[in-house]
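Major facilitator superfamily (MFS) profile domain-containing protein: structure, please.
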Amino acid sequence: MTEGTYDRMSPFLRQLLAVSGVVLYMIGTGANIAFPGVLLQQLRAPDSALKLTAEHESWIASILGLALISGIVVAPFSLQKLGRKLTNQLSSLPALGGWALLVTAKGPTALLVSRSLQGFGMGIQAAAAPVSIAEYSAPKHRGAFLATIAFSFATGMLIAHIFGTILYWRSAGLACGSVYALSLILVTLSPETPPYLASRGLNEQCRKAFHWFRGYDANAEKELEILLNSQKKVTGTRRGSRWQEYRKIVRLPEFYKPTNIMMFMFVLFQVSGMTVVPSYTVPMMEEVSAGAIDANVSMLMVDVVRFVTAVLSCVVVNKLNRRTVLFIGIIVSVVSLVITSTLLYLRDFGYIPEEFKWVPVIPTLVYIFGKTLGILPIPWAIAGEIFPLAFRSLGSGISGMFLSIMFFVVVKTAPFSFDQIGVSGTFLVYAFCVAVCGVFLYFLLPETKGKTLYEIECHFKGIKDDAAQIELREGEKMLEFEKVECG
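Here you go.
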């Protein structure tokens, strides 16, 4: 793509180009999460050349969570030292390697190593994706762009299940892994994010990148000056050793408040069954439908509902308040989980006629709709907005640690839970956990829609709106002064 081509692109299209590279990576992440649902099903066939035990199966589905931890530990340092662009590029390499090893695997050990490589890359990207998308985007587009993470997950899950249904698992793995190559190309075509360049004191490169993404309109120029000025203040206040700096950071309200919020967000994300359902869709839906619906058909029903809802969420998140969308998703999920569980209990005790034994499928699909509409997109949208630039990498890493730990715990215990208390009992446990997280977030989570990243930072610092407006006016004055000087 030539410079002339770039010049003809609008700022929105340039932002879309940069975001698309991250989106493709997250499509691969959705495929990583969902692939065991078809892989394990094929490997259970009597004629399968690769045999697994039940223990192997649970580890193949859950080891992503453990591998995520290692990636998330690396992510803050990579984001801070190497930048957003290079971190996104490097995270593609273990993912590509993981899919290549999976395609050529001859035994369970190779499958576990391949899944570990995928999880390591996912861990890096779990921290990098929301930060990168938020820093690429203008405030008016940020909500929709961050909601594409939910769309990406749903798309990747749908692709994995479709390919896994119509193709042999090795061919399906090759198709799923190819999205990482496309992601790497698109990320390479985009410049580094302006906030990262500003945080490193690279002001001229920051201006150039900012204008590439945002153009030269008046509002963008104001935001650029505020960004540069705020980083001058931060750079000037750094003193002492790295350990002393960390001790100071963790006591700052603009750090510990967003971190607590994101911990609850990512716990909510996992205990809602976000990763359990795609990993165990077939056995779960077999029990919910009591065998009345073919397993592959029910799996694709879940995927289609999730995909359509994820597309809808890209619009809803940009139109409605973040809190509104989140709590709609929580309420719908809790109510539908309770209804599904109740219907399953009634069916077990013989209160539902044989011809209506499939009825629990309906509230189950409503549950998929609810969690995909609100619980899937909002944590990722908030993760990209809520941390101040000075320690956005560190905050994303710490909160992402909860995401990975809960991923492993929830997915690893799911088979035991299904076996001991059934889908009905497991759904009740999920409903209770989602409700508890929802109560905490009701009191902790502020509204971030339509606010600049600097205004969100001011909220957690306790700076009133009028004070933030003073900062805006100072930025405008400095911009005018610089124009006079240049003139």
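Notes: Residues 472-487 have pLDDT under 50 and may be disordered.
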